[in-house]
Specification:
Largest sheet: 6 strands, parallel
Number of strands: 8
CATH topology of the largest domain: Amino acid/polyamine transporter I
CATH class of the largest domain: Mainly Alpha
Structural class: alpha/beta
Strand content: 5-15%
CATH architecture of the largest domain: Up-down Bundle
Number of domains: 2
Oligomer: single chain
Helix content: 55-70%
């Protein structure tokens, strides 16, 4: 009997638009709905330049991140890139800092949501923000589904609303309100850039899902660059409209400047529309912060930098409940301790540090060998892109103020102390920045072999034998695939780790049946366990990755028990690029006759002479035209 090889895989279910929506959706939130008034009060109409500078720095960092993400497409995003480029000690610091930046942005979004809700109903801001925070903790703890589709709808709606706002506002533009353009000098522009920098935090969240993106060498760079470009245009456009329709004094006296301008444009209808947009944007941002709260801790947990308790998976809801609870509670505590401007500055400070280290990581990895770093996209403007990202980011730090800088230093010290106390000697990677700079890490080439292969998605142990029998007689290598469906709140790598901690009985039954099946002598077998948010996507993707010749799937009649499987089968039939054999029902004890439907066109089964020699089962085959 042939030896069964095993393999685990993470499905890639995010196309370009879904990836673009994640990046855009996490950036278009409280930043643009709340900060315009605060920014104008700090820099006047020149706050337009602050958002533009922020966009330039973010674009440079997005290009660097695209190279890193295609070179190391792992969960954890910026944490993973920086820890692999600079060692575990930097990983501890950046993991804590990146998580805190996300938490600060979530608190900031909750305050923004409460401010917009106050326009509709005068409920105290802190009460609304805290109540919504508790609600988001509850739904994420229990594992709300299909949030990805909802996020896409929200992003399209927000882009539409803000585009209308910009077009209508430009027509009402009053140049007299735009001047004086820079009443507080050049330094105020950089100071305001630091303040609004939290608005661009979304691209780090986008990198955190890089291992779930289809065709990452194309879709990741395009999504990163497109999301930053579109968001920057939206931000600049909104700032031009606000500055050209509200006087400086009017901007100082409002927390919701977009509501004031929209009321001038279209009365109550405009006011209600922009309030709905603001509520959706801030709610989406706060929810994304909690949903993504496990990404950095999970990546750190895989590297033994934090205890497994923090990233444990709930047995009933399949969610990282401890990470969700801690993140949500910290978000609520922060919004009670700091005002909206302080939250923006604190979040922006961590964001700036992350951007500096991301650009620096590209400079280091381009000059040094690292086994796992093989980028499919390389920055064509290297090293100028990285220099722009580093220099401009560093110029912002002195303008952030004392509190954010002290807070950042405290986080750095805490990260280093934690590494020395908990992670030193056992945390991954087991090298430091000096090892990388001295080029002591050598790449190891990998090789793969290919044969005629049959992929068999398995989900029902009772049906598995029939599918494997067909596969054994059609192929040289049988690949059994079991797809574990993963909730949206969990990254795929994290779900894999949780699976190993709590073995699923259904998979054990499928694996045992696969291993017991008597393969024809000389045939190879492989068992793949795939983790994906989308089952049909994983089947089609694994067929491409393994370069199989056939997919053999079960196809039952539609009823209450099999409607889900029928749906999966239909999706595979409509999207797979491989030859497909569909078994309707179960095989009889003895096969006496096979009928093949043929439409007169080229057909592998009927036209390939290899079939006659290899697949002679002593069963008459009738070809029907």
């Amino acid at each position: 009997m042939a030896i069964v090889r095993t393999k685990e895989s993470l499905g890639r279910s995010l196309g370009f638009f879904q990836t673009f929506a994640i990046g855009t959706g996490t950036m278009i939130g409280a930043g643009i709905f709340i900060l315009p008034g605060i920014a104008i009060s700090s820099a006047g109409s020149a706050a337009v330049l602050s958002f533009l500078i922020g966009g330039i720095i973010s674009m440079a960092t997005a290009i660097s991140m695209a190279e890193l993400a295609t070179g190391m497409p792992k969960a954890g995003g910026s944490y993973y890139f920086i820890s692999r480029a600079m060692g575990a000690a930097f990983g501890a610091v950046i993991g804590l800092g990146a998580w805190l930046a996300l938490v600060f942005k979530g608190s900031f979004a909750l305050i923004g949501l409460a401010d917009y809700f106050f326009v509709l109903m005068p409920v105290p801001v802190l009460i609304t923000a805290s109540a919504v925070g508790l609600f988001l903790i509850f739904i994420n703890y229990r594992g709300a589904r299909n949030s990805g589709s909802l996020q896409n709808i929200i992003v399209v709606f927000l882009l539409f609303i803000l585009a209308l706002f910009i077009l209508k506002g430009i027509l009402m533009f009053d140049s007299s309100k735009f001047y004086p353009f820079m009443p507080f000098g050049y330094s105020s522009v950089f100071a305001t850039t630091g303040l609004i920098f939290i608005s661009y935090l979304g691209i780090t969240q986008l990198a955190a899902v890089s291992e779930e993106v289809k065709d990452p060498s194309k879709n990741l760079p395009r999504a990163l660059i497109a999301s930053v470009g579109v968001v920057t245009l939206i931000y600049v456009g909104v700032m031009v409209v606000v500055s050209g329709n509200l006087t400086h004094d009017q901007s100082l006296n409002t927390l919701t400047p977009l509501v004031d301008v929209s009321t001038m444009m279209a009365g109550d209808a405009g006011k209600i529309l922009i309030v709905i947009g603001g509520l959706l944007a801030t709610l989406s941002t706060a929810n994304a912060a909690i949903m993504s709260s496990s990404r950095f801790p999970f990546a750190m947990g895989r590297d033994d930098l934090i205890p497994n308790w923090f990233v444990s998976i709930h047995k009933k809801h399949d969610t990282p409940h401890n990470a969700i609870l801690i993140t949500g509670v910290v978000m609520i505590i922060l919004l009670l301790l700091f005002n909206v401007e302080q939250l923006a500055k604190l979040g922006s400070t961590f964001n700036i540090f992350i951007f500096v280290l991301i650009n620096l990581s590209v400079l280091i990895l381009r000059k040094r060998s690292l086994e796992e770093y093989e980028p499919k996209f390389r920055d064509p403007f290297y090293p100028y892109t990285q220099i722009i990202g580093i220099v401009f980011s560093l110029l912002l730090l002195p303008a952030m103020g004392l509190l954010p800088m002290v807070f950042a230093v405290v986080v750095i010290v805490l990260g280093l102390l934690w590494y020395n106390y908990y992670g030193k000697g056992k945390a991954l990677p087991r090298y430091d920045l000096f090892d990388v700079l001295e080029d002591n890490i050598s790449p190891a080439p990998l090789k793969d072999s290919s044969k005629i292969k049959i992929l068999v998605p398995v989900a029902n142990p009772n049906h598995e034998k029939d599918l494997l029998y067909l596969a054994d007689n059609l192929g040289d290598e049988i690949i059994g695939l079991n797809v574990i469906k993963v909730p949206q709140q969990i990254g795929l790598a994290e779900a894999r780790d949780a699976f190993h901690a709590n073995k699923i009985a259904a998979d054990s039954a499928l694996r045992e049946k696969f291993e017991e099946f008597p393969a024809i002598v000389g045939h190879e077998r492989k068992y793949i366990l795939s983790f994906d948010h989308n089952i049909p996507n994983s089947i089609v993707e694994q067929a491409e990755l393994e370069n199989v010749d056939f997919i053999i799937i079960g196809w039952h009649e539609v009823d209450c028990l099999h409607s889900l499987f029928e749906n999966i089968t239909s999706q595979i039939l409509s999207s797979a690029n491989k030859n497909i054999v569909a078994l309707n029902g179960y095989l009889p004890a003895k096969i006496q006759r096979i009928v093949v439907a043929y439409n007169g066109k080229d057909n592998w089964l009927c036209r390939n002479p290899y079939f006659d020699k290899k697949y002679n089962l002593d069963i008459p085959v009738k070809v029907m035209h």
